[in-house]
């Protein structure tokens, strides 16, 4: 069974494989992993931006701007971008957790930061041999990773609730 990413039909391991192949071709480093994850996630943001733009396109204020002879860059800057900003901000906040999980997986596979830079890979990989008599060496970095991912998801959910004009807060 695969974990499916939000707004994507591909399983999570396909995204990691694409990012790993990109990192392997350019060389393993922290910045290469960051760029690879960003490139892999661009189609998700493009789909959200396109959908939001198509929903704004038929609005009366866009037609009014066209009738007022506003050029395309002005319509995009004054009317489209402010209205697609919310979904993209929320998508960014919600994607931070999956990006962190992807980086942790890439890093564990050896495609992340190199020593002496510390990351979850170095902590988990170094403590893996001691798991039988010192399980806390694996439990603490793994627990921090879980807490970070949950915190990023909660941040994204609260940001979505704060930016949604139709969200009614319970009294």
Folded structure, characterized:
With 171 residues, this protein is an all-alpha fold. It has a single domain (12-163), classed as MetI-like (MetI-like fold, Orthogonal Bundle). Helix content is 73%, strand content 0%. It contains six helices and no strands. The chain has helices at 12-26, 30-57, 60-67, 72-108, 120-127, 136-163. α3 crosses α4, α4 runs antiparallel to α6 and α5 runs antiparallel to α6. It is elongated. It starts with 11 loop residues before the first helix and ends in an 8-residue tail after the last helix. The model is unreliable at 1-10 (pLDDT under 50).
Keywords:
171 residues, mainly alpha, MetI-like fold, 6 helices, disordered N terminus
Q: What's the end-to-end separation, in Å? A: 40 Å
Instruction: Enter the CATH topology name.
Output: MetI-like fold
Number of domains: 1
Helices and strands: which structural class?
mainly alpha
Order of helices and strands: HHHHHH
Total count of helical runs of at least 4 residues:
6
CATH class: Mainly Alpha
Largest sheet: none
Shape: elongated
Strand composition percent: under 5%
> Using DSSP, what is the number of strands?
0
The CATH architecture comes to Orthogonal Bundle
Radius of gyration: 21 Å
């Amino acid at each position: 069974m695969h974990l499916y990413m939000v707004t994507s039909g591909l399983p999570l391991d396909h995204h990691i494989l694409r990012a790993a192949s990109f990192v392997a071709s350019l060389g393993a480093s922290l910045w290469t992993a960051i760029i690879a994850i960003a490139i892999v996630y661009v189609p998700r943001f493009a789909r959200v931006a396109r959908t939001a733009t198509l929903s704004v396109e038929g609005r009366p204020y866009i037609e009014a701007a066209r009738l007022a002879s506003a050029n395309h860059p002005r319509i995009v800057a004054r009317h489209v971008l402010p209205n697609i900003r919310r979904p993209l901000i929320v998508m960014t906040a919600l994607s931070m957790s999956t990006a962190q999980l992807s980086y942790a997986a890439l890093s564990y596979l050896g495609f992340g930061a190199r020593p002496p830079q510390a990351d979850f890979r170095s902590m988990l990989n170094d403590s893996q041999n001691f798991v039988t008599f010192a399980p806390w060496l694996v439990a603490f970095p793994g627990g921090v990773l879980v807490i970070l991912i949950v915190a990023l998801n909660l941040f994204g959910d609260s940001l979505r609730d704060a930016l949604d004009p139709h969200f009614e807060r319970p009294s």
